[in-house]
Amino acid sequence: MRAPKVVSPTREPRLFPATGRGLGIEAVRHQQIHVDERGAVLVGDGPRARVLAEARTVRRIVLVTADPLRPRLVLVGADGPLAVLALERYLVSPSALVDPDTDLVTSGAAAIATALGLRIEASRDDAVALTARLPVIGPRLPDDGARAAVARLTLALTLLSVVAVVALAVEPALLVPVVLLATALIVGPARIVDRLRRRALAAMTTSPEGLPGTDGVRRLAPTHPDARTQRTAAALLIGPRRIIEIHHGGETWFPGPAAGGVAAARVTPESILLSDVAGRDLGRLEGGWATDPGEFQRVCAEVGIRVELDPTPMADVPGLWRLEPWRAGEGPGRRWGLDTEEEGGVSVAASALLDAALPFLLVVGLLCGTWQPWAVVFALPGVVLLTIHVRGRLRLLRWRRGDAAFRDGSV
């Protein structure tokens, strides 16, 4: 496979993670891979940036396509591989999985190679072996110790369900240390889940404006009648260097015209198709932006995006990334379908164990009253932790229902 011959000279050397939802929005905003002015390859911007490869240390860039659905971009130094990137996780429009050369251009990988003064090489036999030596880098959700949380919650449930039954039959006074020990095991995972849920809600309710590259963006709200009640949950930000769609509890970032990305937008009755200066597909916008294209046209003209109005309905373009359309009578929560990790639940196992452990903790705390009436105070940890847990669930439930009261993540 040859490196792409056509690379826009103005394309910013940056890989944008594919659409992030819920807690995954943090990955989209803060785990972009780029080349800085020194020639170092970084993940993220500012003080939080992590160095993948120092300046002038990358000698080769190899595209490994042993699995066509999971292409790997390997940065190789003088002494071996420096980083292995999961290229498919940086493709907003994954049509390039069919055409890898196009993939490299639309993802920004070719621009990274150009910034490093290199060409992307064809997959070699040794490249497959290289990918096995390093963990694959891709946008990830924070888990804050999911495995440890599952282990602690499992032990807490065992104490509460087995030891508590024995203690109740033999000596009710033994319930007190059981409650205290179980509380010590549960409080850590419960705080982690609450913190991650707050972060997920904050990500969905705070604007990316002010982040690197978002200077000069203009905000547009959807104009489709079915979207009017969800204006606080959807927006389109258009600027010289970034185009950001906020929709269905997620964010998708595109490079703007000044970053060598979106140069044209084709507006159809169903969607808006984005393409670069060479006409390559970069993605598709859904959600009622095209209903009243006047303001969209004006903002695009200001930043240098050519807009074409096409009143003819068109069939779906194979391979284009696509958001769900607006549907009358349906709130966003019934279509967003955030999974447990995206909601901040650490993992499916940890969330299920926490749902079971907290009521058990409350019940066993109340059973301490069979020893001494005043001992029911040991139900207080269960009351506090269960209240925090339920409040976190209610915050997300209200947000999913499109409650406009959630204007920021501080609630």
Question: Would you kindly provide a written description of the structure presented here, covering whatever features stand out?
Answer:
- The protein is α+β, with helices and mostly antiparallel strands.
- The protein has three domains: 124 residues; 119 residues, no CATH class; 103 residues, 2-Layer Sandwich (Signal recognition particle alu RNA binding heterodimer, srp9/1), CATH 3.30.720.
- The chain has eleven helices and 18 strands.
- Strands 2-14-13-12-11 form a five-stranded antiparallel sheet.
- Strand 13 and strand 14 form a beta hairpin.
- The radius of gyration is 25 Å and the shape is elongated.
- The N terminus and C terminus are likely disordered.
Head-to-tail CA distance between termini: 52 Å
Q: Which descriptor suits the 3D outline?
A: elongated
Beta strand %? 15-25%
| Quaternary | single chain
Largest sheet: 5 strands, antiparallel
Rg, please? 25 Å
Q: Strand order across the biggest sheet?
A: 2-14-13-12-11
Number of domains: 3
What is the SS-derived class? alpha+beta
Helix % is: 25-40%
- What string gives the helices and strands in order? EEHEEEEEEHHEHEHHEEEEEEEHEHHHH
Mean pLDDT: 79
Uncertain segments: 1-9, 228-232, 316-335, 403-411
Count of alpha and pi helical runs: 11
List how many beta strands DSSP finds.
18
